[in-house]
Design brief:
This protein has 8 helices and 8 strands. It is α/β, with parallel strands linked by helices. Helix 2 packs across helix 3.
């Protein structure tokens, strides 16, 4: 069962700027491409940072303000003042860039965004070169899948391929991404597996597991493991 990855939702035709790109040119790129941020790359395409609208707005914030330094100025205000006086991407960007790989799962990407408090992630290849960008709205695209697509995945990937359940044994209903499972399986462990795997299907919001079972195997002791003796040939 394949989980959706960043490569499934990322923008591949990504706009970038170099470390020497001027402030006004960056504003032009954002306006022309209708994006809120761009990765900053070096001459080899490696990610060095990200310039966002928030970085650019510091110049508007400090427009006309004196450039005098204040002894007790908060670090955040000092940083904002410095970016307000910046003229090129290297001075404006937030660095280092927080990046992901194309094969990163959407779950891992979402957790990284939350942990780092960022709204987008440059996507890089194994060498660190920018090959795309993924935003928070991109990650939500997984929930645009239809209920019919989700139901088909649950039936094909979970019931048939993993659990080998006969058709008609379990009933699957999907409404607004909520999967409801009814019917009966032979073992309690199979019921648990069915619920957990269904929750991993792309687009599933919630699983209501109402499956019954004939035999409770949850308390059975684990099978003992025996050392495997090497086989002598000849």
């Amino acid at each position: 069962m394949r989980a959706w990855q960043v490569s499934d939702v990322m923008t591949k035709d990504v706009a970038t700027v170099t470390e020497e790109t001027a402030y006004r040119r960056i504003v032009d790129v954002l306006a022309q491409r209708r994006v809120s941020a761009v990765p900053v790359v070096d001459d080899f395409g490696y990610a060095r940072g990200v310039v966002s609208e928030a970085d650019l707005l510091h110049k508007v914030e400090w427009m006309g303000e004196p450039e005098e330094r204040r002894v007790f100025e908060r670090p955040s205000r000092r940083k904002a003042r410095r970016k307000g006086a910046a003229g090129i991407a290297r001075e404006l960007m937030t660095a280092p860039a927080v990046t992901v790989f194309p094969h990163t799962s959407l779950v891992a990407a979402a957790r990284l965004m939350d942990r780092e408090q960022v709204k987008r992630l440059p996507v890089v290849d194994d060498l660190g070169r920018v090959v795309g960008i993924v935003t928070r709205s991109d990650l939500l695209r997984v929930h645009l899948r239809s209920d019919a697509e989700i139901r088909d995945d649950v039936v094909q990937e979970v019931l048939r391929r993993v659990l080998a359940v006969r058709d008609g044994t379990v009933r699957i209903e999907v409404r607004d991404g909520v999967v409801t499972m009814t019917g009966r399986l032979d073992r309690s462990s199979a019921v648990d597996i069915a619920g957990r795997l269904a929750a991993r299907i792309a687009g599933v919001v919630e699983v209501v597991n109402e499956l019954g079972y004939d035999f409770d195997d949850s308390d059975l002791p684990a099978s003992p493991s025996f050392p495997v003796q090497p086989m002598r040939i000849g």
